Structures are given as C-alpha cells and as structure tokens.
Fold this sequence. Notes:
Elements: E1 9-14, H1 18-30, E2 34-40, H2 50-61, E3 65-70, H3 80-93, E4 97-101, H4 109-113, E5 121-124, H5 138-150, E6 153-156, H6 159-168, E7 175-177, E8 195-199, H7 208-221, E9 226-230, E10 246-249, H8 258-263, E11 267-270, H9 279-286, E12 290-294, H10 299-303, E13 307-310, H11 315-327, H12 331-341, H13 349-364
Parallel strand pairs: 1-2, 1-4, 2-3, 4-5, 5-6, 6-7, 8-9, 8-11, 9-10, 11-12, 12-13
Helix pairs in contact: 1-2, 1-13, 7-11
Amino acid sequence: MSESDVAITVLLVCDALxxxxxxLARGLADAGARVKLLSRDHGLEFGGDPDAMxxxxxxxxxxxxxHLILPGRVRHHAHWGRTLELRREISALAPDxxxxxESIVNDPRLLIAAPPRRRRFAFTIHDPVSRFxxxxxxxxxxxxxxxxxxxxxIFTHAEALRLQLIHEQGVRAPVAVxxxxxxxxxxxxxxxxxxxxxxxxxxxxxxxDVLFDAMPAVWEGLPECRLLVAGQGxxxxxxxxxxxxxxxxxxxxxxxxxxxxxxxxxxxxxxxRQASQSGVGSLAxxxxxxxxxxDVGGLRELVGDAGIMVPPADPPAxxxxxxxxxxxxxxxxxxxxxxxxxxxGSAGWLDVGRQTLEAYATYLGAPRISASxxxx
Length: 376
C-alpha cells in the first residue's frame, strides 16, 4: 500500500506510556492508517536506558511507523531548535488526527512541536484520578484541564472510567471506550508448584502490603505456595518478606525476562487500592494466567472471566480467592485460557486500532478506512 492510497494520517504524541503508545501506533498502521509517533528521548519504562527504549520501539513499529524523537529536557535550551524543526515537519505532514496521551503534560515542548487544534484532537486519559502520592505541579494540572476542555474526543479503557469522567469530572467531550490493547496470547504450561505473581512498578496504590497480609492465610491452606514479587520501586519492610517461600526481584526486568516470569506463575495478584486499568492484567491475559484483582476502577471489565474479584484492602477476602483459584482443580488453567481467548476479536492491537479509527471518524470527522486496507 503506497502512502498516496492511505485514507487517514495520524500523529500519536506521548511522554510516558511509550510501550502502550508504540503498540497502539502499530495497531493503527496495521488497520490501514499512515501513522507517526512523537515522544521524548528517555528510558523511563526501560530501566533508564534510552537505547533499550529505541530498540523496543523500533521492534514494535517495524517499518510501518516513523518514530520522531524530541531530545533533551525542557531546561536544555540547546534542544529547542529541534522542537521547532519538528513543528515544521508536523505542519507539513498535516495529520488528519493528532492523538495525545495524558502524559504529554510532562513536557510543554511536545505541545509546541505538535500544537492541538481545538475540538480536532483526541486525548487518552488512562487514570481519571491520579494514583500517585505526590501531587502534579500546578502547570501540569492546568495543562491537562485545558486539553480535556478543548479535545474533540476523549479515550479511556473501561465503561466505569467513562462514567467517572462524565459524572465526577464533568467531561463534556465525547468519551469513547476502547480497551487497553493486548498482544496475541503466548500460553505456557502452569508451574508444578502453586505460585502467585505480583509484577510491575512498586507503588503504594498497588496494595502489595494487602497481599503480604494475606499470605499467612494462604500458607495455612496451601503451605507449598510461593510468592514472586518483581518490579522496580521502594519495597516497604514486611515480616512476610523474610519467608523463604517469597522471592523478590526488586529491579527493572527487561522485556525478554517477562515471558519466563509469567510462566513461573499459577496466577497473578492485582490487590490494588486504586486503579483505572492494569497493564499487568493485560499481560496476564497475554500469557494465559488467571487473576485475583481488587474490584476498583475498570479492573472488573478487564478481568472478566479470567479471574476472581475481591474488595480492595481486604486481606482475608484476597487470601480466600487465591486459595479458591489455586486449590480448585483446573480452575486457574480454565480462567487463564478464558482471558487469552477474550483477546482475539476485541482487545488485540489490530482490533484496538480499528476501534480507534472508527472513533476518529465518528467524533472527529476523520476519513474512514475500508477493511480491505488493513494489513495490506
């Protein structure tokens, strides 16, 4: 398919959440759009290694999407010239849609390079309520409010989040629900020893302490059960961590280590105190692993038939659900397969690309792409 045959040109813009945005870019391209991706040059999701970022994004995008990179930081005045060069390049591109991720508020240069047109751009809100302990700087909060007011289309990942944006935050733009994309499943056999996995960047809102408080009851019912905790971040002290059945990998894990990590797990625990969606939950589906998750935000919609929901901050309920999942013959495998099966036809990245393009057409008046263009 030549560029002259492409019906729509899309520019995706992000700071953080680059793994997600790169996968979305590829899904849009596979669905038939011409796509470019603009991001900053950093390794925030890659153990601080910008080279690892470039390698990952390049492998994800292949030759279907060009990656435009904004170097340096706001305070690095030497790089402002590149910002203006990108602005001219993007102006010449004349994208039909500019689609920003909420993380763009971290660096105003992204909005200078790719200026929004009122009511003509899309804005994805992954977390209607900030999950982090620290407060965002005032200028970031104001920028986010400005983007929400001026957007022609808001995306989020679950119906519960759409209702929250409309009824609790007064969002007036159309809000489209498109699931967090998931790569095609890669299912490996369950381990012989029952093992719970808690994976991802360690933050207080993720409720690891709730899981730790639940483990004595889990061990009372299933003494051989192991707990594997993997991810970067400050891990608070807890008596459970001294138990030999607990393994902690408190560091960044490269993408190449993720499949083996999930293969070592019987199920995945998401004991969040607060959440909108969970990239770890999407990975659990990708790897065919059942979940036990707190009933917060959009997690119920994400988990579906792939796990058991429990009240947040309730260690006894969490322990009971984990025991039910691991002690009921065949249940963990059945739920893991159900999660993997739910990906195809609805949450795969090509499906997400198609749903996103349909929303552009419906709410922003962008050109529609015929099914024959996809993957051509």
